[in-house]
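In this supplementary section we document a worked example of the pipeline. Step one takes a protein sequence of length 384 as its only input; no multiple sequence alignment statistics are reported here. Step two produces a three-dimensional model, which step three serialises into structure tokens for compact storage. The input and output of this example are shown verbatim.
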Amino acid sequence: MKNSSRGGVDPFIVMDVMEAARQAEDAGRHIIHMEVGQPGTPAPAAARDALAKAMADESLGYTVALGLPALRKRIAKLYAEWYGVDLDPARVVVTPGSSGGFILAFSALFDAGDRVALGAPGYPSYRQIMKAMNLVPVEVQTKAENRLQLVPDDLASLDYQGVMVASPANPSGTMLDKDALAALIGAAQGQGASFLSDEIYHGIEYERPAVTALQISDDVCVINSFSKYFSMTGWRAGWLVLPEDNLRQVERLAQNMFICAPHASQVAALAAMDAGEELEANMAVYRKNRALMLEGLPQAGFDRIAPPDGAFYVYADVSHLTDDSRAFARQILDEAGVAVTPGLDFDLERGGGTLRFSYARSTEDIAEGLERLRRFMQARGLVS
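The serialised model returned by step three reads:
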């Protein structure tokens, strides 16, 4: 049976690294996980308790395609609490994780052959999902002086029907302030293009709060998820916020593509949104880990880094050490027992000389991982 051309996408390299790390652990090695953007903490206790109660008391069948009304209402309330935005719950669509949100948004907003501008480095699944849907990802090499974020000048000579940004970004953790985000939205709208804002790392910020695109315009598509701030990666619950005119289109697509997001995950997500004390305790760990990374990575010889504004990653330029980040990451895993992500996942052009380090795990793991990295580099005479 033949394979479709749509399925000919590149692998998600971090998942390959995870598999290699798993194999090493199966062989009895202790691996420090700095590769995957997965919190080391479980879903909030209130979320787990709510699901246990629901499993005992009710049938968890299909929900309506747009999601549980109570959850949509609570998500809308979050925008008032975090950003001062008065959001109509009718504009909220609950999705099977942010990945389901990407599929719905791309299907609703673009036709086959449409071109969508993306900044590189960036989350690799954007381009792979687009390719599988016969869209054209137009990757723009962002500049260090712009903190690896798109700026309107990057779009000036492009032909595009959409622009997608993430702030905080993956892999860099950098953020756009309100003026910078507004300038990008204005540039896209001036071209009649759709604007999509991936806000999955909102809530995980350090020096200043993140800005939602909804503070600037209602004519945008916002994608978010319970995976990161709410520590619910495997639960596959996310959401979209859409202009009113796009809702019925997305609803019809959701009905046919997914029926609904998992009912069990929606119940847990609703309870997680009021677990503020536990979630802020997680943030205290991220802050401590970030400080350790910003001190420890340069001591280990990875000194070409920019402090992340949000998320839980440090993106390092290692082009002075290698031009094959995939082989270098494998060497670090094999010899140091630390799993890190090659930059090729995020930037096909420059990623051979970059690595991403995640600090989402326990502080003890981060400290141990940094010491292993230091010893690895010391053995090569690269640090004293």
